[in-house]
Design a protein that fits this description.
Radius of gyration: 19 Å
Strand content: 15-25%
Strand order of the largest sheet: 1-11-8-7-5-6
Number of strands: 11
Largest sheet: 6 strands, parallel
CATH architecture of the largest domain: 3-Layer(aba) Sandwich
Number of helices: 10
CATH superfamily of the largest domain: NAD(P)-binding Rossmann-like Domain
Structural class: alpha/beta
Length: about 300
């Protein structure tokens, strides 16, 4: 058996096309404000990509940069001004923040109705209670990928999420639960983790341990949605070279699984696509616009 590859790049492009169609049907342009603090090179790349893709789907992008000398008060004052700006529909605080700044405290200053990353306590509460709200982007992308592989109805599927982070593990579990899946959250203290994983119809490793999930952890025919993005040494590419791998041993697991996401090119591209989708949903909720059918 060789698994079918779940092409995250292609599916993310489909989501962005749906967002662009939705934007074209709205009475106004949604606006996403991105806040970047400091000079982290990776963050600068991510922000440029988010700004570009926001504009490509027809939305307005506002980009605020603060120096790495910015204080907690500077960051929170900027967020407060964006909360108060009625033209801004979504606020994204690019993480990580420079050392000495409290990201959790800053995120809590974001108006939950503009929390397009779905990270505030209010957003988490709405998710837990099943109330309408903005959902975290990466876990939302995981559900979309699973549906593209297995069909819209995931009812009764046993999902095993490895990892209990507030960024991915916990919200992913709740989102799959909302799809009528049976969900197990596994973690470092789980007894006989490989045996637990072998019960999964959908396995979602999200712990940041390179190639931890080996072929003998995978139920034959299972779907693997690999959230891990890890950089490891790649001497075969030359001295000092590295490559990206997931939390699953891709080559070996693909021999057992029915469907699998690659790394890179799987879950990663879905995160920005779902961010754009959230911005449209936030705009519709705030402005009383009907949500277009394409979403």
């Amino acid at each position: 058996m060789s698994a079918q590859v779940i092409d995250g790049k292609s599916i993310a492009a489909d989501v962005r096309a749906d967002v662009a169609k939705a934007v074209s049907q709205l009475p106004g342009q949604p606006t996403l404000a991105v806040v970047l603090v400091g000079e982290d090179p990776a963050s600068q790349v991510y922000v440029r990509s988010k700004v570009r893709q926001t504009e490509e789907v027809g939305m307005i992008s506002i980009h605020h940069r603060l120096p790495d000398t910015a204080s907690q008060s500077d960051v929170e004052t900027l967020i407060a001004s964006l909360n108060a700006d009625d033209s801004v529909d979504g606020i994204l605080l690019q993480l990580p923040l420079p050392k000495g700044l409290d990201a959790d405290a800053a995120i809590e200053k974001i108006n939950p109705d503009k929390d397009v990353d779905g990270l505030t306590e209010v957003s988490a509460g709405r998710l837990t209670l099943g109330k309408p709200g903005l959902r975290p982007c990466t876990p939302t992308g995981c559900v979309i990928l699973a549906k593209r592989a297995l069909g819209e109805d995931l009812s009764g599927k046993h999902v095993v999420v490895i990892g209990r982070s507030i960024l991915v593990g916990k919200p992913a579990a709740l989102l799959f639960l909302a799809e009528n899946c049976t969900v197990t959250i596994a973690h470092s203290r789980t007894r006989d983790l490989p045996a637990m994983c072998r019960q999964a119809d959908i396995l979602v490793p999200a712990v940041g341990r390179p190639q931890m999930v080996t072929a003998d952890w995978v139920k034959p025919g299972a779907t693997i949605i690999d959230v891990g993005i890890n950089r490891i040494d790649a001497p075969e590419k030359g001295e000092g070279k590295t490559r990206l791998v997931g939390d699953a041993d891709y080559a070996a697991s693909a021999e057992v699984a029915g469907h699998i996401t690659p790394v890179p090119g799987g879950v990663g591209p879905m995160t920005i696509a779902c961010l754009l989708r959230n911005t449209v949903l936030a705009a519709c909720a705030r402005r009383g616009w009907p949500v277009p059918d394409s979403l």
